[in-house]
Design a protein that fits this description.
It is elongated, with a radius of gyration of 23 Å. Helix content is 41%, strand content 24%. It is built from one helix and three strands; from the N terminus they run βββα. β2 and β3 form a beta hairpin. The protein starts with 10 loop residues before the first strand and ends with a helix. It is an alpha+beta fold.
Length: 82
């Protein structure tokens, strides 16, 4: 992991084949910082904790769907045996 120190309005540049990503320190206030991010189209920028929440919700949804599918398959087996 690269660790850099930045002052307000200073940035870093990540060079890439599809364009550059620029991250700028906008504000420092009460132990929090605000970052500005410029990136070319095609990049999704999301807060890390939201990504984990989305992944967890997707897993829970998949498990719920699996339970529903098992119920449907189980009902289908009972009809076939009748």
């Amino acid at each position: 992991m690269l660790v850099l120190s930045r002052k307000r309005n200073e940035g870093i540049l990540i060079k890439g084949k599809d364009g550059d990503i620029r991250i700028v320190l906008i504000e420092i206030d009460k132990g929090k910082i605000r970052l500005g991010i410029d990136a070319p189209g095609g990049y999704t920028i999301i807060r890390e904790e939201l990504l984990y929440e989305i992944e967890g919700a997707n897993k829970r949804s998949a498990l719920n769907n699996l339970e529903e599918i098992k119920k449907i398959i189980g009902e289908g087996d009972e009809r076939d045996n009748a």
